[in-house]
Automatic annotation (TrEMBL):
InterPro entries assigned: Isoprenoid_synthase_dom_sf, Terpene_cyclase-like_1_C, Terpene_cyclase_plant_C1, Terpene_synth_N, Terpene_synth_N_sf, Terpene_synthase-like, Terpene_synthase_metal-bd, Terpenoid_cyclase/PrenylTrfase
Pfam family for this entry, one: Terpene_synth_C
GO MF annotations, alphabetized: magnesium ion binding; terpene synthase activity
Keywords for the protein's UniProt record, in alphabetical order: Lyase, Magnesium, Metal-binding
Protein name: Uncharacterized protein
Organism of provenance: Erythranthe guttata
Length: 564
């Protein structure tokens, strides 16, 4: 439903009979949900899903045989692995893929020493190895440069597919890899120059999409949905892999729609938005975020837990940003720290609703996880909730105090927490059976990959939401803090912050190599940066205004299936 007017909101929500005397922030009047009851009802077609599963089983064996065949050259196998991953099928073959890439990395087949490998294969090999935490050296690109300055050879400009492969590979670069910085500039400039004149073939679509969204920073499920459609147009496509990808996508989509149906019914039964009409009604977009973190079937219950938590923290965020007074927020913050239902009597009526929902949600998590011996995970998640709410309160005080504009580093010390990557990663681990106490302790120590992800998410969010926040009277935004501290204009501040983001993406790539926890665990952190990338694309707030951003992706992933 649409947000209520200011007068209605005060009348409906404030517990004080003299609510008109309460001075509140400017209520945002967020757009209503785009989806109504679109996802509430879904009946799983058991017969169809069983048919899909049976055929998938057969086609998987065909693909596995290709992956493990000794009769296929490694260069061809790299293309096969890349195709399988782009089609969204890699979760079926994780062990086989890792084994093949480890062989390549260890040089058993000496691919890296083969001077006959062209730019396409060299770049593909480099990207695949680094994606799988195998630290391929950037020096393998030296032979494609031609002078002391390390400029790439002009002759390479005849190899469009090779340059495109190089371009995608450069997104795996880390700090200090000058050759890859030059490779990025070279490949980007070349692809931008030739893209308009390419014939209308799959290659042109690939080039244009890569320039808009790199594969490495893209959300895997979104990228595979797009690639399946593109692969269908490729003349040399493997029909068996294509059919497997379509069947697998449709079968997974059924599971996702079933989860979303459960989630939207839960949301509708709580009826939070009619009671707290200042908040954003974005439960479908919350589920999309959870899909961005993990879409594979084994994470089904974890995904629902995560989506529910995102929906609730979104309401809490709006409470701190757009409705609560500083006095009310102080009481709510204190109540969250105490985590005791008896604290509810201290809260205004509208906050009682929110507080009870939070406690009930975590109690439900504990009831679900306790029989599995995972109550410890709920403890960590609860502590993370306390931390993020405390930082929400600090930011709310900055807003009220107005004249206090913190230094950028002081701002980021809180903003990195309120960006939510840490809080939501903890939550993402709730339903992951291999997220042990040691994994939670690793995250609690705030490893570099997490700190870096927080910076990326925070700045991308700040740049996209800046204009809206200024309209609501926010003064302590990241951009404002940077402008004041460095004495620069808004445009310069935004440019500098975007440069910080680019550096931090390189640090995220470094974090992929940290083997103190499994790759499965590390990638949940990395995927939050990917979710931010797609949500705030083109400096637009695609969460608050999904019509601008997330709507086409929700439609593609949850409403459009492939014809079989």
């Amino acid at each position: 439903m649409a947000a209520a007017s200011n007068e209605e909101a005060n009348y409906n929500l404030a517990s004080n009979p003299k609510s008109s005397d309460i001075v509140r922030p400017v209520i945002a009047n967020f757009p209503p949900s785009l989806w109504d009851d679109r996802f509430t009802s879904f009946d799983m077609d058991i017969q169809l899903s069983s048919m899909y599963a049976e055929e998938i089983k057969v086609l998987k064996e065909e693909a596995r045989n290709m992956l493990t065949s000794v009769d296929i050259k490694l260069s061809e196998k790299l293309v096969l692995i890349d195709t399988i991953e782009r089609l969204g099928l890699s979760y079926h073959f994780e062990n086989e893929i890792q084994e093949q890439l480890t062989l390549a990395f260890n040089g058993h087949l000496k691919l890296e020493l083969d001077e006959n490998n062209d730019l396409f294969i060299t770049s593909l090999q480099f990207r695949l190895l680094r994606q799988h935490a195998l630290d391929a050296p950037s020096s393998i690109f030296k032979r494609f440069t031609e002078n002391k300055n390390g400029e790439f050879k002009k002759a390479l400009c005849t190899e469009i597919e090779g340059v495109l492969s190089l371009y995608e590979a450069t997104y795996l670069r880390r700090q200090g890899e000058e050759i890859l910085d030059k490779a990025f500039s070279f490949s980007k400039a070349y692809l931008e120059s030739v893209a308009p004149n390419l014939p209308e073939l799959p290659l042109k679509k690939q080039v244009l999409h890569a320039l808009d969204q790199s594969l490495h920073r893209g959300t895997p499920r979104v990228e595979s949905r797009r690639f399946i459609s593109l692969y269908e147009e490729v003349e040399s496509k493997n029909e068996s892999l294509l059919r497997l990808a379509k069947l697998d996508f449709n079968l997974l989509q059924m599971l996702h729609k079933n989860e979303l149906s459960e989630l939207t019914r839960w949301w509708k039964e709580m009826d939070l938005i009619s009671k707290l009409s200042y908040a954003r009604d974005r439960v479908v977009e919350c589920y999309f975020w959870a899909l961005g973190v993990y879409h594979e079937p084994q994470y089904s219950s974890a995904r629902v837990m995560l989506a529910k938590t995102i929906a609730i923290i979104s309401v809490i965020d709006d409470t701190y940003d757009t409705y609560g007074t500083i006095e009310e927020l102080k009481v709510f913050t204190d109540a969250i720290q105490k985590w005791d239902i008896r604290e509810i009597d201290r809260l205004p009526d509208y906050m009682k609703i929110c507080y009870r929902v939070v406690l009930d949600l975590y109690e439900a998590f504990d009831a679900e996880l306790s029989p599995k011996g995972r109550s410890f995970a709920v403890h960590y998640a609860r502590e993370a909730m306390k931390e993020i709410v405390t930082s929400y309160y600090v930011e709310a005080k900055w807003f009220v105090e107005g004249d206090h504009l913190p230094l950028f580093d002081e701002y980021m010390s809180q903003a990195e927490i309120t960006a939510g990557a840490y809080f939501l990663t903890i939550t993402a681990y709730l339903g992951m059976d291999n997220a042990t106490i040691e994994v939670f302790d690793w995250l609690l120590a705030k490893p570099n990959i997490l700190k870096t992800c927080n910076v990326v998410v925070r700045i991308i969010d700040d740049v996209a939401t800046y204009e809206d926040e200024k309209k609501r009277g926010q003064v302590a935004t990241g951009i404002d803090c940077y402008m004041k501290e460095h004495g620069v204009s808004k445009q310069v501040a935004i440019q500098c912050l975007q440069e910080i983001v680019e550096v931090r993406w390189k640090d995220l790539n470094e974090g992929i190599l940290d083997n103190s926890v499994s790759m499965e665990i590390r990638m949940r952190v990395f995927n939050w940066a990917r979710v931010a990338e797609i949500t705030y694309k083109r400096k637009q707030d695609g969460y608050t205004y999904p019509e601008k951003g997330l709507k086409p992706h929700v439609v593609a992933l949850l409403l459009q299936s492939f014809e079989i």
